[in-house]
Amino acid sequence: MWRLVQSLLLTALLAFPFASVSAQQPPADDIRKLDDEVQDVKTEVLDIAAELNLLEQQLLYPPATRVTVSLGLGEDRDIELSTVELRIDGDLAAQHVYSVAEQAALQQGGVHDLYTGNVAAGSHDLDVRISGRLADGTSFEQAGRHSFSKSTDAKSLDIRLDDAVRVLETEPPSYGAALYYAYQDKWFEALEQLHTELERDAILFQAVDANFSVGDFELNYRMHQRAARVMQDTLTEPVDESFQNHAAYRLARLHFRKGQIHDALRALDRVSGDVPRAIREDVAFLRASVYLALEWSEPAIPVLEKLLKSKEYGAFASYNLGIAYLQGDLTNAAYDQLDRAGRFKAKNDADAAIRDKANLVLGTLLHEQGQYNRALVYLNRVRLDGPFSNRALLSAGWANMSSGRPKKAIVSWDVLAKRDATDRATQEAMLALPYAFSQLDLHEQAASHYGRALNAYAGQFDKLSQSIRSIEDGRFLAALSRDEIREDEDWVIRLRALPDAPETYYLLELLASNDFQTGLGNYLDLLDLRRRLTDWAARVAAHGASHEDALDSLSDRIETTFDDVENLMARQGRVLETLATDELTARLRRLDVYASKARFGLADSRDRVQREAQQ
Asked: What is the reported pLDDT for 6?
């Protein structure tokens, strides 16, 4: 039974929020090797950034004249900061208009590095003017003045906004400045800030927090190997139990995402004592998912049973519990649980989708066992506008055909055949629909629908061939690199509408797969690194002869790393293009098989129509 379920589901963890399944088997060795090399070059670029930042600070803002000003919110984090204006001795030093993302970063504890400049030794006045909105929507403006004395040492000022504007004379901001970028999902900038400060040894007083955040930031910046090492090191430090549990959970989640299941289990075994409430259910669900991936149904079942009432994981736990019962060959319990999961009261789209999935899986299992009427009960539960509706309509049609009800099969398949012609279930329905008519001896209708199927297949064949040519011309990667696409969280959906990249219309499943996402993320990161290196090379050249040896060394590093990035981009691009081309070629082969069957069916139907006419 369980082997049948595996063939139907590919994996029991399709519903797991941390994991996704590839649309096809990718060149895994190429992807892994490139992923490792990209992580190495990211480390080199971050080291270059830290060296350049420190060198420029010495060149442009020597300690004798350097003044830095940062800004953060005080205890009242509900303030929405709109604008800030900074003047030193009456002269405009800085002004900034905060975006929604920047406002949120400040509210979560981020610190904005507002100004770095040169000020002569002596007494000075700092004037600050701030505007924004309070929690109740009321607009406000505040102003404050702070007098400070500049010596031959670097001076740091920290603006804090509470009931009034306060200016503190503090050490340079570090951890908060990195968080300011991290809370905006600007992971390179966050890491650049931390790498620079760690080079300067400015945050030793926050060493544990900073090291952990480096690992967390590196994980988000797709530097998985370094993130794992940092998190592993954190687990060996004498730190708070709660902190260790957070680190162990993140490390386990990282290993699970990378398919390193036994490593994930070992990391989870480091979670001990009182697990923080904020991650308690996360840890439990991850643990159950690891057990399922290892096909250890017995320990998975009690963990999932405890999660059934979870607000966040209830639907997923209900479905995965059914899968766990199937793994353990507890067929009756599995059917009962999948039935319950298929009636789960959905609170959001994700719950509704997993409910549909439970009904589709149970209906398909019953169909495979020849229980067609029972199968239809569950297949008909699947929403007609949900992500599993096409597969449910196709299976419902076959269940009706298998139980001798071709007219009802026609109803399901007629609806499906009119849907998106790029969908596999729709393409199969185009072929199944005339077959059902032929079983009713309605051969003219069968011939008509076989003809429509052939026309649809021909159109798709032309578009697929055009798409492959488009990939070969480089338009696929160009489309994926568009800024307006990358900045949209629904970018995968928007790609369907691109007129100059038709291949994206067929590749949504591939684009959403874990391996493709890894490769694409690396490719886009490399594009960004190339841009940064180009800018840095110009900055280094602009400094002229001062610090010539250090600048020459840095210039050589930038040039060498730029070549490495270019090489990796080319290789990563070829892997992505190969994945896309292979997927489109597989679609072409499938269409060719469908077209052959449709031509045979059309010829047979026409022959039967002629014979009926002669009788």
From this structure: 43
Alpha helices in 372-497 (DSSP H): 372-379, 389-402, 406-417, 424-439, 443-472, 475-480, 483-486, 491-494
Taking each helix axis from N to C end, the angle separating 207-220 and 175-182, rounded to the nearest 10 degrees, works out to 20
Consecutive H or E run containing 284: helix 277-293
Beta bridge partners, 148, equal 124
Q: Which residues of the chain have pLDDT under 50?
A: 1-26, 202-212, 493
- Rounded CA-CA distance 593/585 in Å is 13
pLDDT at residue 473, rounded to an integer: 87
Q: What is the pLDDT of residues 11-68, one digit of tens each?
A: 333 333 333 333 344 455 677 788 889 989 998 999 999 999 988 888 899 999 999 9
> How far apart are the C-alpha atoms of 384 and 416, rounded to whole Å?
10
Residue 68 has which token pair? 């830095």
**DSSP bridge partners of 159:** 71, 167
Tokens for 368? 């495979």
Cα distance between residue 453 and residue 77, in whole Å: 61
Cα 279 from Cα 587, distance rounded (Å): 42
Question: ∠ CA 127-132-135 to the nearest 5 degrees?
Answer: 135
Distance CA 277, CA 242 (A): 10
Q: How far is CA 441 from CA 430, 451, 453, in A?
A: 18, 17, 19
Reported as half-sphere exposure (CB side, CA atoms, 13 A), residue 249 has a value of 20
DSSP per-residue string spanning 17-62:
TT----SS---HHHHHHHHHHHHHHHHHHHHHHHHHHHHHHHHHS-
Q: What is the pLDDT of residue 392?
A: 97
**CA atoms of 212 and 215, how far apart (whole Å):** 5
Tokens of 263: 């490593």
10 in helix, strand or coil?
A: coil
The C-alpha atoms of residue 431 and residue 598 are separated, in whole angstroms, by 6
Residues 6+ positions from 464 with CB-CB distance below 8 Å:
506, 584, 587, 588, 591
Instruction: For residue 597, give every residue at least 6 positions away whose Cβ sits within 8 Å of its Cβ, in sequence order, or none.
Output: 431
Query: d(Cα 498, Cα 503) in Å, to the nearest integer?
Result: 9
Per the CB < 8 A criterion, the answer to whether 304 and 340 are in contact is: no
Write out pLDDT tens, residues 81-101: 999 999 999 999 999 999 999
Q: 546 with 564: CB under 8 angstroms?
A: no
- Supply the pTM of this predicted model: 0.77
- Tell me the C-alpha distance between 527 and 90, whole Å: 42
Do 557 and 52 touch, CB atoms closer than 8 A?
no
Query: DSSP state, 495?
Result: G
Q: Which amino acid is at 321?
A: L
Q: What is the spatial distance between Cα 157 and Cα 126, in angstroms, rounded to a whole number? A: 9
Sign of CA dihedral 189, 192, 194, 196: negative
Tokens representing residue 205 in the block: 């007083």
- State both tokens at 606: 């026409």
Phi first, then psi: give them for residue 387, nearest 5 degrees: -70, -15
**What number of residues does the chain have?**
615
